[in-house]
Amino acid sequence: MKRIALVPVISAAMIAIMSSAAYASQYVAYEGPGFTGRSVVIDRCGPSNIPFHGSYKWYGDGQSGRMYNQPDAQGVAHFELASDRNAEQRTPVGWKSIFIVC
Predict the structure, then answer these.
(1) 78/68 Cα distance (integer angstroms)
(2) pTM higher than 0.70 for the full model?
(3) Pfam families given for it (predicted)?
(4) Which of 69, 82, 90, 98 is the most buried (most CB within 10 A)?
């Protein structure tokens, strides 16, 4: 009897966890131009410093990205990457940090 009651509880918990795990926008920074070399994916909300400046890809999936020319998202935002469109640049980028708005 207890085993039967436990199955729906586990199922409900799994559905709740999966529905709250939404996709997030991602900024992929590449070490070299043309998306070459090492890369890092930045997808957490709030400010993040960008370690590589050779090129980038942005995957807009619900959150926008405010781009800064200073570390730690300090100063005035220089550019905003759209929440609903992808973007990329094959040449070096001057942005030092990003603030993903969630």
Answers:
(1) 5
(2) yes
(3) MiAMP1
(4) 98
Region 23-101: CATH code? 2.60.20.30
pLDDT digit string (tens) for 50-63?
999 999 999 999 99
Contacts of 66 (CB under 8 A, 6+ apart): 73, 77, 79, 80, 81, 98, 99, 100, 101
Question: Rounded to whole angstroms, how far apart are CA atoms 45 and 34?
Answer: 26
59-97: pLDDT as tens digits: 999 999 999 999 999 999 999 999 999 999 999 999 999
Give the bridge partners for 97, in sequence order: 49, 68
